[in-house]
Specification:
By secondary structure, this protein is mainly alpha-helical. The chain has 4 domains: 136 residues, Phosphatidylinositol Transfer Protein Sec14p (3-Layer(aba) Sandwich); 103 residues; 189 residues, Methane Monooxygenase Hydroxylase, Chain G, domain 1; 164 residues, Up-down Bundle (Methane Monooxygenase Hydroxylase, Chain G, domain 1), CATH 1.20.58. It contains 19 helices and 7 strands. The strands form 2 sheets. The protein has a 5-stranded mixed beta sheet with strand order 1-2-3-4-5. Strands 6-7 form a two-stranded antiparallel ribbon. Belongs to the SOLO family. Keywords: Repeat. It comes from Sinosuthora webbiana. This is SESD1 protein.
Length: 685
């Protein structure tokens, strides 16, 4: 039964040849009957009308089996069978019995039955229509035919089932309402087999059948295939055409469904984004309205806002993805979805941009608040530093340090002014942003919250202004005090300088003012110069006294005790007393010298003929006494009130001055002698 087949050969009436090989094993008539029914169902009605020639190969079977098979043909295919050729074995059957039986049953069977040897089968059928088993040349591979037939049967079954399923799906998609279409597609959306696989199987089968039709199977040996009706090439082609048509419609249905599903998914995601942004997202922003009252508070609010932004960024990422998907669908150009897609895109963009703007506004507001509090903190620290500097009592060492401190104070005050101006600018900018917050509003009235923020900002600026004003007042007082201290130090320095100048004048008086003049005129000139020199010293002393009096007034104003004025005044008085004593001594010497030179010059200039000269003996005694007194003073030091002594010039200088006086005294003495000689000679004569 395995090789029961239609070989593709034809008899002389162009009828198909059916070969039934029998074997030694027990043959099941039921299976044989089913197989015959299947084989006879393959040809078309046109082929069946031409009749069949049945070859029963009984060479390996018993006569009774052959007889049963022949009789079964009467029940299975009586009308289609025109000739039955029973191939007998090489052993001889009972010819008489067999021949008699077939001949006897001819009329009842309805077809002719002949008993023939395999080598004589060509008398009834052309060799080219017989296979090699019966001495023919027809090439036939039963296993190949069976495999192809199985493939065909499988393809037919799967394609027919698939066509029904696709038709159900496609027809369901053509129903009236959208709801009915979706329900139908949902129930029968996926076919039981893959259409691509079935189509590929059909194409491979058709290609194989068409190729075998014109090409030999073994090295170019000609092979006569079965008719198209047997191989069902038209049926395969028809099924493929139907499958392609239904599958194309099915793909369109799937595309529409996929597009609708994608659109619904996009719409669902859009609503998720919109609902979250307008719901929890907006609620998060509504609860965040403060700006903090310090840097730390503002930073905490910024951190909280960053957490809110992080949550929003996840939804914004979904927005970007959805926007790309919507743009791709819009580019596809389906007019029926353009309006809906654009509406979704617009709604999504409006909500996202509005929420992003609110987040950006809040971030800018917090950043402005942080900058405001930073400037306020810096300004507060500057004011604290300035106040601390003002609260410390000033104890500078000199005027330069006071000037440096005053410069530093002015720089700090200038820095405070700049900081306060910066605070005002930051505060005004922050107030402007807060005033614009009402335009966002986060869906609520922010008047109360804004008032708290505005009051806080204005309060900070007013407090800083008051602190700055207090510091300015203290700076004014400190500036006046420091300027007075600078003046005090200046007065003390100038007073000390006056003492130095007066000491230098005293030193110059002692060391350089030593000449007494060579005559009365020169001595008078020296005396006049000395008086002017004394006037300079007097002015210096008076200047020093005035400076010291000013220091006393300044110390009283500053409520402090000068560190240097305490010993400057005694020094000034001491030097001035020394200068006064020295000056008086100098005046006395010059006046004595003037008297000495005047008298001496008068005596030396008198003529001997003048009678009065001889009578003025007292003048000589006076000039001698003055000269001796002057010489004595030159050798005596100046004694100061404190008991100290000081000489004019050096000993050599004094010796030179004394020598000059002695010479003049000698001249006077000589003049005296000259005047006395005539007086002595007169009595003798």
């Amino acid at each position: 039964l395995l090789f029961l087949s239609e070989t593709g050969g034809k008899d002389r009436r162009s009828g198909l040849i059916l070969t039934i090989p029998l074997c030694l094993e027990q043959t099941s008539m039921d299976e044989l009957s089913v197989t015959l029914d299947y084989l006879l169902s393959i040809p078309s009605e046109k082929c069946k009308a031409r009749g069949f020639t049945v070859i029963v190969d009984g060479r390996k079977s018993q006569w009774n089996v052959v007889k049963t098979v022949v009789l079964m043909l009467q029940n299975v295919v009586p009308a289609e069978v025109s000739l039955v050729c029973v191939v007998k074995p090489d052993e001889f059957w009972d010819k008489k019995v067999t021949h008699f039986c077939f001949w006897k049953e001819k009329d009842r069977l309805g077809f002719e039955v002949i008993l023939v040897s395999a080598n004589k089968l060509t008398r009834y059928i052309e060799p080219c229509q017989l296979t090699e088993d019966f001495g023919g040349t027809l090439t036939y591979d039963h296993m190949d035919w069976l495999n192809k037939r199985l493939v065909f049967e499988k393809f037919t079954k799967e394609s027919t089932s698939l066509l029904d399923e696709l038709a159900l799906i496609n027809n369901g998609s053509d129903k009236g309402t959208q709801q009915e279409r979706e329900r139908s597609i949902d129930l029968n959306f996926l076919p039981s087999v893959d259409p691509e696989t079935v189509l590929q199987t059909g194409h491979e089968l058709l290609s194989e059948l068409q190729q075998r039709r014109f090409n030999g199977s073994d090295g170019g040996v000609s092979w006569s295939p079965m008719d198209d009706e047997l191989l069902a090439q038209p049926q395969v082609m028809k099924l493929l055409d139907s499958l392609r048509e239904q599958y194309t419609r099915y793909q369109e249905v799937c595309r529409q469904r996929s597009k609708r599903t994608q659109l619904e998914e996009i719409q669902q995601k859009v609503m998720q984004v919109v609902n979250w942004l307008e719901g929890p997202g907006s609620e998060q922003l509504r609860t965040q309205w403060g700006i903090g009252d310090s840097i730390r508070a503002s930073q905490a609010l910024q951190q909280k806002h960053e957490e809110i932004e992080s949550q929003h960024s996840e939804w914004f990422a979904v927005y970007v993805e959805l926007n790309q998907q919507i743009a791709a669908l819009l580019n596809a150009g389906d007019e029926e979805d353009l309006v809906e897609l654009k509406a979704l895109q617009q709604q999504l963009s409006d909500v996202c941009y509005r929420q992003a703007s609110q987040l950006e506004f809040r971030q800018n507001l917090l950043q402005a608040a942080l900058e405001f509090h930073s400037v306020a903190q810096d300004l507060s620290q500057q004011l604290d530093g300035l106040l601390g500097m003002l609260c410390v009592d000033v104890a500078p060492a000199d005027g330069a340090s006071i000037q440096q401190t005053l410069k530093l104070l002015e720089e700090k005050l200038k820095s405070v002014d700049s900081g306060l101006q910066g605070l005002r600018e930051k505060g005004q900018s922050l107030l402007d942003q807060i005033s614009n917050q009402a335009s966002w509003a986060y869906g609520k009235d922010v008047t109360i919250e804004n008032k708290e923020n505005v009051d806080h900002i204005q309060g900070v600026m007013e407090d800083m202004q008051l602190r700055k004003q207090r510091c300015e007042d203290m700076v004014d007082v400190r500036r006046l005090k420091m300027l007075q201290m600078v003046q005090l130090f200046k007065c003390e320095e100038d007073a000390a300088q006056a003492v130095e100048w007066l000491s230098e004048l005293l030193d110059a008086l002692l060391k350089t003012h030593i000449r007494l003049g060579d005559d009365a005129q020169e001595t008078k000139v020296l005396l006049e110069k000395h008086r002017k020199f004394v006037d300079v010293a007097q002015s210096t002393y008076d200047y020093g006294r005035q400076l010291l009096q000013a220091t006393v007034v300044l110390c009283q104003s500053l409520r402090c005790t000068s560190r240097s004025s305490g010993d400057t005044l005694p020094r000034l008085n001491r030097v001035w007393k020394q200068f006064t004593v020295t000056s008086e001594e100098r005046v006395h010497r010059l006046e004595t010298a003037v008297a000495f030179h005047s008298t001496a010059e008068k005596i030396l200039q008198e003529c001997p003929e003048q009678p009065d000269a001889f009578n003025d003996v007292d003048q000589f005694d006076e000039i001698e006494a003055v000269g001796k007194s002057l010489l004595d003073r030159l050798t005596v030091p100046v004694v100061y009130p404190d008991g100290s002594e000081q000489y004019f010039g050096s000993p050599s200088d004094m010796a030179s001055a004394a020598e000059h006086i002695r010479e003049k005294m000698k001249l006077v003495s000589l003049k005296k002698q000259q005047l006395r000689q005539p007086e002595a000679t007169t009595p003798e004569s």
